[in-house]
Design goal:
alpha+beta, Butyryl-CoA Dehydrogenase, subunit A, domain 2, Butyryl-CoA Dehydrogenase, subunit A, domain 3, 2 domains, six-stranded mixed β-sheet, four-stranded mixed β-sheet, 14 strands, about 45% helix, globular
């Protein structure tokens, strides 16, 4: 089939999938007004891949001469990563800072099992690597949208998967093994765009121990498979929400669904891990490594938008030359450009994994970038809200603005600087409200890994011996020369 058209993509969602939203079963996700927001956003992938202006960037020709998505290709060189970064930038700029979800997250899970599957095969004689490559080919040839099922619902976070008390399905697990496959139960949550995707790739979200072997499972299956139920995240919009009041959330409903697996059958050819517990953490770790490029690139584009809104809000309020405002705007520029530079540096200094020909961003730089972005987001929110003022949360709706009885009053009393219109000021107010919502705050902290996860990675990756060697040499403590960076350096201060 090669590259799907947007219409073919939408038709592919009419497959009997079980989806619930706001307490009701959704009989057809393509006809539901809120689900449609997610579908249209995901469809951008298909719109742009069919656009001659973007095809050279977004697609490749496979060995059969058919166009396939570049995002579904394994990245084997620094140049591949730089190209993927430009793909994510384009997706993010088109979609107001939020890349289309057709292949955005799950491609990184696919790369993770691509790296880990051969390790399992080498130890246990399994056939997982061949399964992964067949699955990649299936995704490419059918140009499928697929979601990444990583985060389990977890239950009591202080207990391991096998130790849970209320029930054993807080993590997805194998409940039965058959000659032709396995039966799984459990739930994944925070699964972005799942109701708008064709398939899901499921993988463990953490390291396991021997007693957790049933939870060490990875596979890829269609989302209309019997036994799968999706419950959509509560949307911030309603069916009659408009783009004036909700410029971001009406255009981008991420729909972080909870997905329940109730005795779901997984055929052998779709299994990538089946009880090999010592490899579960490796899959999760490798996903994070690959996903750093995606996460940090779109965040830089989101900050581009965020900082632009802050500047315009200052101008529309007539305060852009005030010293404290200029200080805040300067900080936002530094924040934006630092995230962009760190993300690029992680790619420029990419690394390869032992036994694999795939490459991914430098983990140390990438984790610092992710932590820096997330840790400073609330400060950025504070600055833009301070610049914008209380009107961000108290402005009347678009319906009031267009009501003939109140329009003139709003034109008069909601005006700001004479250099712009009342309508433009109100539009920017609504954009800032969307950009600084509670949803955006929580998403920034927890998406792609929590702050504590970043710190843990940074501590584990830190070159402590290099740091100690530098300090020992300066302090005149013996042993600094044992570090190859300092061994053989000329004496300082020199003995002249």
């Amino acid at each position: 089939m090669a590259i799907k058209t947007p219409r073919q993509y939408l038709e592919s969602l009419k497959d009997g999938r079980v989806v619930y939203l706001n307490g009701e079963r959704v009989p057809d996700v393509t006809a539901h007004p809120v689900c449609k927001v997610t579908n249209d956003w995901v469809a951008i992938d298909y719109i742009m891949s069919n656009d001659p202006r973007y095809q050279d960037l977004l697609t490749d020709l496979d060995e059969d001469g058919e166009r396939v998505s570049f995002a579904l290709q394994p990245q084997r060189t620094r140049e591949d990563l730089l190209r993927l970064r430009e793909v994510v930038k384009l997706w993010a700029r088109v979609c107001f800072g939020k890349p289309s979800g057709a292949k955005f997250v799950a491609k990184d899970g696919l790369n993770a099992v691509t790296v880990v599957a051969p390790r399992v095969d080498n130890k246990y004689g399994t056939n997982y690597a061949a399964n992964v490559e067949a699955y990649r080919r299936h995704l490419q040839k059918n140009d499928l949208a697929f979601a990444m099922g990583l985060t389990d619902v977890k239950g009591d976070r202080n207990l391991r998967p096998s130790q849970q008390v209320q029930h054993k399905d807080f993590y997805v697990r194998i409940v039965e093994e058959r000659s032709d496959g396995i039966i799984v139960s459990g739930a994944k949550t925070h699964i972005s765009q799942a109701p708008a995707c064709n398939e899901i790739i499921v993988a463990p979200c953490r390291a396991m121990q021997k007693e957790d072997a049933a939870y060490a499972v990875a596979f890829g299956i269609p989302l209309n498979t019997p036994g799968i139920t999706m419950i959509c995240a509560q949307p911030e919009i309603t069916a009659d929400s408009d783009l004036f009041d909700h410029p971001i959330s009406k255009a981008v409903y991420i729909n972080d669904a909870t997905i329940i697996f109730d005795n779901v059958f997984i055929p052998n050819e779709r299994i990538f891990l089946k009880g090999e517990w010592e490899f579960a953490g490796q899959v999760a770790y490798m996903f994070a490594n690959f996903h750093r490029l995606s996460a940090e690139t779109y965040k830089a584009m989101e900050l581009e938008l965020f900082t632009g809104a802050a500047v315009l809000m200052a101008e529309y309020n007539g305060v852009e030359k005030k010293a404290h405002v200029r200080e805040k705007l300067t900080w936002l520029v530094m924040y934006t450009e630092a995230v962009e530079t760190l993300g690029l540096a992680a790619v420029e200094h990419c690394v390869s994994e032992r036994g694999s020909d795939l490459v991914y961003p430098n983990p140390m730089i990438a984790n610092i970038c992710k932590f820096y972005f997330a840790d400073n987001w609330h400060q950025a929110t504070k600055y833009i809200q301070d610049i914008g003022g209380g009107i961000i949360v108290t402005a009347p709706s678009y319906k009031d603005y267009t009501n003939p009885e109140t329009h003139a009053l709003m034109e008069k009393y909601f005006a700001g600087s004479a250099r712009t219109s009342t309508e433009n000021r109100l539009r920017m107010v609504k954009l800032v409200r969307d950009l600084t919502s509670c949803y955006e705050d929580v998403l920034t902290i927890h998406a792609e890994g929590s702050l504590e996860a970043q710190k843990l990675s940074i501590v584990q990756l830190a070159d402590w011996e290099r740091y100690k060697g530098a300090a020992m040499r300066a302090a005149g403590i013996a042993g600094a020369g044992e570090n190859p960076l300092f061994d053989g350096l000329p004496q300082f201060p020199p003995a002249l």
